[in-house]
């Protein structure tokens, strides 16, 4: 990874205070509304309670929002000719993709930290293992989606790329079982969508694979291999497509 370019990118993203405010605060607000303030917040779920279940879900959503936004900024760079400038440097295509993923990884830590601290002080309870492993899964898994944002930025040559990526992320969040527990056919379909494996893996230390239902106690068990396979498969798909798009862009320049 090119550390000099990574430092420049981190300073540039960090100076965008408005974007940083919404990346960090909006998911935290959603956790308070749909988690800590609800009557079911203290209901036991696996190794913790419902508030922690919602906390992990919102932290996951905040993290992917951050990583997708960072990746989507590639579209703005291309429009401003920054991609052509980078094409004149020794930095390879693989290094470019790695820098974008690394910056997104660092930025994603901000909403995760904020929401987990809020959860700690607003009633989210769970075993120490559930706290640490879920946070680690959210941080590592969110890095995958910087490649999704980068891919959107490379496909759409305008600032609309960031909006398109973020908008589709909300749809994927619904389909990925983040906002509302799915069941039946919808749950089967959800297992093939990008965010399902990521959030299921983050929740696993809490739920141990049990699926939450809105009509009664959890009755279904989801093997660990399902979210792992889902996340790895989508990581490979995003990485390959992003690499091919970067190479095609360099060829045109």
Instruction: Summarize the biggest pleated sheet.
Output: 2 strands, antiparallel
Strand order in the largest sheet:
1-2
Contiguous runs where pLDDT drops below 50 for at least 5 residues: none
Q: What is the percent of helical residues?
A: over 70%
Strand content: under 5%
What characteristic shape results from the CA principal axes?
Answer: globular
Overall mean pLDDT stands at 81
Please count the helical segments. Answer: 10
Rg over CA atoms: 18 Å
Number of strands: 4
What structural class do the secondary elements suggest? mainly alpha
- SSE order, one letter for each helix or strand: HHEEHHHHHHHEEH
Please report the distance between the alpha carbons of the first and last residues: 23 Å
Provide a descriptive summary of the structure in words:
The protein has 253 residues and is mostly helical. Helix content is 75%, strand content 3%. It has ten helices and four strands, in the order ααββαααααααββα. The strands form two sheets. The chain has a two-stranded antiparallel sheet. A two-stranded antiparallel ribbon has the order 3-4. A hairpin with an 8-residue loop joins strand 3 (210-211) and strand 4 (220-221). Helix 2 (17-36) packs antiparallel against helix 3 (50-79) and helix 3 runs antiparallel to helix 5. The mean pLDDT is 81.
């Amino acid at each position: 990874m090119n550390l000099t370019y990574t430092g420049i990118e981190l300073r540039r993203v960090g100076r965008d205070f408005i974007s940083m405010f919404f990346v960090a605060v909006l998911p935290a607000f959603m956790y308070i509304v749909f988690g800590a303030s609800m009557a079911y917040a203290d209901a036991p779920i696996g190794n913790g309670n419902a508030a922690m279940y919602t906390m992990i879900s919102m932290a996951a959503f905040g993290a992917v929002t951050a990583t997708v936004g960072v990746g989507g900024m590639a579209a703005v760079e291309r429009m401003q000719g920054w991609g052509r400038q980078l094409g004149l440097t020794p930095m390879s295509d693989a290094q470019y993709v790695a820098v974008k993923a690394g910056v997104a990884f660092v930025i994603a830590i901000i909403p995760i930290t904020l929401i987990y601290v809020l959860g700690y002080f607003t009633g989210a309870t769970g075993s120490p293992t559930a706290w640490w492993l879920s946070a680690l899964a959210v941080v590592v898994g969110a890095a995958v989606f910087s490649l999704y944002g980068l891919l959107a930025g490379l496909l759409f040559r305008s600032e609309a790329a960031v909006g398109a990526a973020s908008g589709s992320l909300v749809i994927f969040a619904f389909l990925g079982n983040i906002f509302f527990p799915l069941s039946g056919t919808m749950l089967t379909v959800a297992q093939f969508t990008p965010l399902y494996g990521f959030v299921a893996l983050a929740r696993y230390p809490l739920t141990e694979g049990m699926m939450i239902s809105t009509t009664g106690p959890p009755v279904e068990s989801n093997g660990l291999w399902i979210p792992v396979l889902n996340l790895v498969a989508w990581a490979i798909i995003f990485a390959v497509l992003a690499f091919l798009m970067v190479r095609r862009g360099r060829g045109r320049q």
